[in-house]
């Protein structure tokens, strides 16, 4: 897709700001497809592969930055990723069987509910949930992979709210949210590339903008006190959920 200089600047600025939000909260990527569709004029079937391709490369950077700060529990990540791959495949196969409006409504409900939960009184350390077992992680990974492939999102928009709702530590939830998008985006990008649906140049441009923002947002996530980070995450999820609901209402 050829872009004018103005469009390129708008896309770059939006990607940069979205990258900061992603680096800090892992949530907000769900807004990229609507932006590319309604803001740039890209058909939705072309916007989804571009978004997923950009999540792949920016996600790799986010994983590196979070891992260097010890915020990715690799044992849990392995369980999640193992289930996300077949989940993403099944989601792609089922894409034509589920109403997009139903999926968007469910996404909005998850985001708003989890956002309100995060904005409530933070539990004391003793009230945090126990570490999740392999079975629960496999279920979360498969669910995240399936739904993400259905709606063209990286996965953090669903996994992070669910982990927060299950009273997992905030930074752990953010780190796993960054990681889960890599296998999901890789599977989806390879499929789109094989089918000729991926604009690699536009995807790479968006990925660079997102990555620059993530490089700024990740240190913020680790510098903010946990209560402040929890509130920031709650606001981000609430805004993202309301944005999806508004988009759905407007058709």
Tell me the layout of helices and strands.
Blueprint: H1 5-25, H2 32-39, H3 44-68, H4 74-93, H5 100-119, H6 134-151, H7 156-165, H8 170-194, H9 200-223, H10 226-250
Low-pLDDT stretches = none
Q: Return the average pLDDT rounded to an integer.
A: 83
Strand content: under 5%
Q: What is the string of helix and strand elements?
A: HHHHHHHHHH
Strand count? 0
Overview in brief:
The protein has one domain.
Task: Walk me through the structure.
This protein is an all-alpha fold. It has one domain (5-250). Helices cover 78% and strands 0% of the residues. The chain has ten helices and no strands. The chain has helices at 5-25, 32-39, 44-68, 74-93, 100-119, 134-151, 156-165, 170-194, 200-223, 226-250. Helix 4 (74-93) crosses helix 6 (134-151) and helix 6 (134-151) runs antiparallel to helix 7 (156-165). The longest helix is centred in the first third of the chain and has 25 residues, at 44-68. It is globular. The chain starts with a helix and ends with a helix.
Question: What keyword list fits this structure?
Answer:
mainly alpha; 10 helices; globular
């Amino acid at each position: 897709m050829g872009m004018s200089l103005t469009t390129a600047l708008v896309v770059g600025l939006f990607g940069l700001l979205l990258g900061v939000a992603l680096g800090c909260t892992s949530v907000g990527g769900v807004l990229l497809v609507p932006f590319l569709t309604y803001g740039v004029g890209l058909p939705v079937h072309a916007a989804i592969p571009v978004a997923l391709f950009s999540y792949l490369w920016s996600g790799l950077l986010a994983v590196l930055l979070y891992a260097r700060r010890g915020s990715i529990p690799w044992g849990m990540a392995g369980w999640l990723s193992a289930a996300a791959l077949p989940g993403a495949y099944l989601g792609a196969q089922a894409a034509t069987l589920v109403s997009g409006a139903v999926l968007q409504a469910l996404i909005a409900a998850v985001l708003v509910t989890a956002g309100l939960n995060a904005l409530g009184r933070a539990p004391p350390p003793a009230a945090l949930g126990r570490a999740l077992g392999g079975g629960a992680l496999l279920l979360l990974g498969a669910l995240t992979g399936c739904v993400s492939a259905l709606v063209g999102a990286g996965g953090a928009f669903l996994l992070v709210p669910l982990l927060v709702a299950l009273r997992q530590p905030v930074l752990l939830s953010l780190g796993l949210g960054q990681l889960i998008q890599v296998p999901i985006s890789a599977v989806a990008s390879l499929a789109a590339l094989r089918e000729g649906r991926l604009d690699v140049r536009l995807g790479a441009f968006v990925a660079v903008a997102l990555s620059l923002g993530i490089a700024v947002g990740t240190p913020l996530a680790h510098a903010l006190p946990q209560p402040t980070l929890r509130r920031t995450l709650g606001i981000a999820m609430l805004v993202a959920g309301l944005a999806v609901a508004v988009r759905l209402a407007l058709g």
